[in-house]
Amino acid sequence: MTTYQVDGWTALGDPTRRAIFERLADRPQAVGELASGFPVTRPAVSQHLKVLKDAGLVVDRRDGNRRIYHADPEGVAALRSQLDRFWSQALATFKEVVEQDNEEEVA
């Protein structure tokens, strides 16, 4: 079976994964607890969690015979950093365009 690395944005592109991630951002939960809130099977939730974990957005810990998943603050910080860079660049570009338009109007 071929596996591939998914980045955080791609992982969150799926509505079910995004909803799972949002629930884990609220509080840590086990697979069974998560599955009870979705119209998908428990194995499907486990697969979504694997993608989120591979993307660095969630981590898990053992609690007896189950795993408790929660949002990974480092993964969330990496996404936020990417967004900050994107918006900084977009605003800088917007400023350049506005200033260029103002210079052309004055000339």
Question: What does this molecule look like?
Answer:
The protein has 107 residues and is an alpha+beta fold. It has five helices and three strands, in the order ααβααββα. The protein has helices at residues 8-12, 15-26, 31-35, 42-54, 73-106, and strands spanning 29-30, 58-63, 66-71. It has a three-stranded antiparallel β-sheet with strand order 1-3-2. The radius of gyration is 20 Å and the shape is elongated.
How would you summarize what this structure contains?
The chain has 5 helices and 3 strands, in the order H-H-E-H-H-E-E-H. It has helices at 8-12, 15-26, 31-35, 42-54, 73-106, and strands spanning 29-30, 58-63, 66-71.
Task: Please count the helical segments.
Answer: 5
Taking the sheet with the most strands, its summary is: 3 strands, antiparallel
Shape: elongated
Order of SSEs = HHEHHEEH
Fold blueprint:
Layout: H1 8-12, H2 15-26, E1 29-30, H3 31-35, H4 42-54, E2 58-63, E3 66-71, H5 73-106
Antiparallel strand pairs: 1-3, 2-3
Helix pairs in contact: 2-4
What distinguishing features does this structure have?
single chain, 107 residues, alpha+beta, three-stranded antiparallel beta sheet
